[in-house]
Each structure stands twice: as C-alpha cells, then as structure tokens.
Design brief:
six-stranded mixed beta sheet
Amino acid sequence: MNKMIITSVSILVLMFFASCTTMKAVPNERAVSRFIGLYNTGDTDRMIRMSSIPMLIDGEIVARTSDAAFFWTRLREAGFNFQDSENSYTVEPVSRNSYILFGDTMEVRTFFDKYVPETAVIVRLEGPGGGYILLLSGRKGLYPFIFGFTGPMS
C-alpha cells in the first residue's frame, strides 16, 4: 500500500514539473538565443516540433502541422537566417495590444486571446530585408515553442 501511494505521488510530481517546463515557462534571453541558433542551423524537423499548432504566420492562423512544415522548409530553402549576435534582438512580455504586431483583425485578436499563454514574449530581431517578430512561450528541453512569426516590419 505504501509503495502504491509513493508511486502515485511521484507520478503527480513528475506531471506537475513536466507541465511547468513546457507551455508555462517564460522564455529567457538564453532560451531565445538558443532558439535563434536552432533556426539558423537549418534543423527544420526540430523547428516543426517546436511550432505550436495553431500558429500565427503574418496574421494568418496555421492550423496544420503540414502547413507549418511547409513554411519552415521554404524559409530554409530560401536561405533565410536571423542575425545572431548579443544585441541583435530584444525580448518583451506580451501586452494587451501585442496582437496588433501581427495584424489588427478579429482573427488575430481571437488567436491571442485563445492560444497565446500569459508567459509569451515578443522577440524583435533582424533578418534579411528588415525586422521580424517571433512570438515565443513555454519550453521543451532547451527551446521555447513558437506561437507566431511575422515580418519584415516597416
């Protein structure tokens, strides 16, 4: 009986910590830097696994993993990379009006209300043709999940 209680409690504790290290974690500077490095390595399979579905791309909601895979693959094939230096990006918490960065539409606002965790951050960074924005939150291992991508910004 004691063994059963200890096993049950252990499983509950593991489930609690597993949930804390995924969607509820706020990405810090190191996690963001690792994410940029991951993208720049060209590991599209891992980028696909780190994409939260649904995901927001330039104001459009991507609801299928295959569409996210197409997006990351085509971006890679085009030779797109982010600048990856110490001062090449900024990180700020998501605010009430952050949705406007992706599009001032009811669809984008609903996506933010329904799918974007309170722990999400906006990452502004440089890439080919200008500035880009990533919407990141949570973590799986070393990398945060990506909830959105948009750019270049004018």
